[in-house]
Amino acid sequence: MNFPQDLRYTSEHEWVRVTEGNIATIGITDFAQGELGDIVYVDIDSIGNQLNANEVFGSVEAVKTVSDLFMPVDGKVLEVNAALDGSPDLVNTDPYGEGWIIKIEMSDPSQLEGLMDAAAYESSVAG
Question: How many CB atoms are located within 10 Å of the residue 74 CB?
């Protein structure tokens, strides 16, 4: 399992990568995609919305289940990964790269300090 050091993680298995300034990319972790199994659809209907941390910004549908996606920090949804429309399996094959889900403008980047680093997240899922 992969736990990139440059990311911050939530207990709900989302990851956050700050790309520049207060812009961040969000996806689900390698652990999460493995637990969900083959992802067949990614549903994001929150583009343009200002959401608070822990609010649902969309969902991923796997063969056997649907799982909500939660905002790790407060922010406005700027972009959805259009590649997921035709290839939702990118979330399975490259969860930290081509399988990213949304980009946001963070309202308060200091909220990242409240998220787990790679070591803490790895410990949380190792149990």
Answer: 18
d(CA 59, CA 67): 5
Q: What is the pLDDT of residues 75-121, one digit of tens each?
A: 999 999 999 999 999 999 999 999 999 999 999 999 999 999 999 99
Query: pTM, whole model, 2 decimals?
Result: 0.96
How far is the C-alpha of 121 from the C-alpha of 45, rounded, in Å? 28
The pLDDT assigned to 1 comes to 82
Residue 71's nearest CA partner among 87, 59, 83 is 59
CA distance 96 to 7: 9
Handedness of CA 66, 30, 19, 114 (dihedral sign): positive
Q: Return the DSSP state at 116.
A: B
> 46 pLDDT band (50/70/90 cuts)?
very high
Q: Is 40 helix (H, G, I), strand (E, B) or coil?
A: strand
| CA-closest candidate to residue 61, choices 37, 45, 34, 95 | 37
